[in-house]
Amino acid sequence: MKGNKVQQEVAQYRITRLFDLAKESLNPKSPMNGLGSRYIRIAEEISSHYRIKIPDNVRLYICRSCHNPLVPGINAKVRVVSEKGYISYTCACGAERHIFYK
Ligand SMILES: [Zn+2]
Q1: Ligand 1 mean position to 69 CA, how many Å?
Q2: How far is the CA of 70 from the centre of ligand 1 (A)?
Q3: What is the CA(93)–ligand 1 centre distance, in A?
Q4: Structural domain spans, the chain
Q5: 5, 24, 28, 102: which has the highest count of C-beta atoms within 10 A?
């Protein structure tokens, strides 16, 4: 595959930016309210099109089931499961995401 570094950097930037927009869209006062999962899907399409990875600080905070960003206090409940070594994010849709810290 032809690796175009600039193109990949731009794609990476767009993914991070889309994730920020997705988080903003969770605000009920935002004009983008409700578009979170669309932004995330676009970010996922960019990542597969340019064959780049979604950065960890974005990838870990996306609900796998409804494709919304997980923001504690807004649409996600956070719980620490210390005996198993992970943080559990429960999305508003009911799906759980486990983030291991050990
Ligand atoms: Zn969800």
Answers
A1: 8
A2: 8
A3: 4
A4: 5-100
A5: 24
